[in-house]
Amino acid sequence: MTSFPELVFAADVADNARKIAHRYFRSALEVDDKEDHSPVTVADREIEAYLRSRIAETFPEHGIFGEEQDPVNMSAREVWVVDPIDGTKSFVTGHPLFGNLMALLRDGEPVLGQIDMPAFNERWQGMRGAPTTFNGTPCTASGCTELSKARAYTTDPELYTGADRAAYEALHRSVHLLRFGGDCYNYGLLASGHCDIVLEIGQQPYDYLPVVQVVEGAGGVITDWSGRPLGLDSKGDVLASATPELHEQMLKALAPCLAGA
Hints:
The protein has 261 residues and is α+β, with helices and mostly antiparallel strands. The protein has helices at residues 5-24, 42-58, 88-92, 165-174, 185-191, 205-217, 244-260, and strands at 32-33, 39-40, 63-66, 78-86, 99-106, 109-117, 122-127, 133-134, 137-138, 151-154, 177-180, 197-200, 221-224, 238-241. It has two domains: 5-138, 2-Layer Sandwich (Fructose-1,6-Bisphosphatase, Chain A, domain 1); 147-260, D-Maltodextrin-Binding Protein, domain 2 (3-Layer(aba) Sandwich). The strands form three sheets. The chain has a seven-stranded mixed β-sheet with strand order 3-4-5-6-7-8-9, sandwiched between helices. The chain has a five-stranded mixed β-sheet with strand order 11-10-12-14-13, with helices on both faces. A two-stranded antiparallel ribbon has the order 1-2. A hairpin with a 2-residue loop joins strand 8 and strand 9.
């Protein structure tokens, strides 16, 4: 994908972000709680500071939207979205399922996406106009078209509370196999054909925008629970599916839940 300089750049900075993550992973870390009670560490802050400095140096006209610092130049036509460590709860408990996420938005739409898994040395990259790759080799979603045969993931069923619990129940009763945990890793697994559906709730833009092109470039579909494209202003309830047929079936299963919300 050398014809896409932004993708080459994303891979380069992820290589160095991995080194920072490796330095702190499974070490004695002080963990702070943010206002939303989610954890943050020096590793989160250092990786994001590094990513921001490289973006500002290489693409000074671009905006930046990240998890740990205030947005920069959000009126720019092109905006980078970064999550230094997706899955900080995994990171601070020594679990390897944490990732580094990057997206590039152009006119508000994600045109580049990257999922990097430092503990595994695994990386998915997606760019509009090109196939998604896993460690440099093109990959494709499973092709599953029947909801009753689908293998699904959601990170945490306890996040589905109140009226939203019906969405989890719809997923649970509709699919063949349901597993938990994984955070951003689940979208990479979908892009490589290992699972067929990912349903998440209450995500932030830096959680979901970096995975859009990864999913779509592998032949999958990703939207909010109503079937709308994902953007900076989306609610953050995300559905990703291996095929359009599967996506439509899951949207229909979710529709009564949305009507009752």
